[in-house]
Amino acid sequence: GGAGGAETGGAGGGGVDLSGTWISRIQTSANETVPVVGSTAANLDIVLRLLVTRSAGQLNGQLDICRLNTVTTPNASSLVVTFTPAVLATLTASASEPDFVATVGSPVPLPPITILSGRDAGGASVDSDADGNPGVTIPSNIGGVLSLNAYVGLTISSSLTSTLTDPTTLNGTADISTTGQVFGSDNPVLTSGTISVTPTSPSVAFTATKLPGDVPCADVLTRF
Questions:
Q1: 4 — phi, psi (to 5°)?
Q2: Cα 206 from Cα 173, distance rounded (Å)
């Protein structure tokens, strides 16, 4: 019963147990700067899951990005990138904080979480998707005419501010930004460069809903 204890214990004093899978869909506009294309506006569609568990006086969170879609505007064909299942599986990171008693109507402190994919903390390439190429491989189409596989490293920084509005709902704001490095591609037109994706607003409203237990991304996506 160790897992069961982690799920149900630690929320004494009339508090709300935060254990479970919190899911949210965040849609926002952003500014993208990428090699070859340059700067462009884009719309982002992100589905997140945050698995919360308790152990040894700590509240542990595992953040997974289940969906990451970007559509350039006003021309949707300026840049089309595909985050494959193999790459999405690398978009995960964990953080912990001292356990606390959560109550409805009160803020829920969430530590900043940084996801590194295709690179290490020093910026060096890591073959996170294990396909034999540096970084992670992002199939890309530029202008509707040039298709290539870009080898990139990404740093996705997330900062969430939230309030528990009922035992299974968090409302708040999210700041999710991305920087990256291009390590090369399978086309000589793209050999290096930097990536930046910055939301138009640093505080995007979001609602997160708690599901019981550990709900995988495949099931989370059926809800959005």
A1: -65, -40
A2: 6
SS3 content of the chain, % helix, strand, coil (to 5): 5, 60, 35
Give the largest CA-CA distance in the chain: 62
Q: Provide the token pair at 24.
A: 């949210």
* CA–CA distance, 213 with 74 (Å, rounded to integer): 41
Q: What span, in angstroms and rounded, lies between the C-alpha atoms of 150 and 82?
A: 10
Pairing of strands 92-98, 107-109: unpaired
First to last CA, the chain: 33
pTM of the model: 0.90
Are 54 and 9 within 8 A, CB to CB? Answer: yes
Neighbours of 77 (CB within 10 A): 12
d(CA 81, CA 118): 16
Per-10-residue mean pLDDT of the chain, 224 residues long, equals 35 74 96 93 96 93 96 94 96 94 92 96 96 97 94 96 95 95 96 95 93 97 95
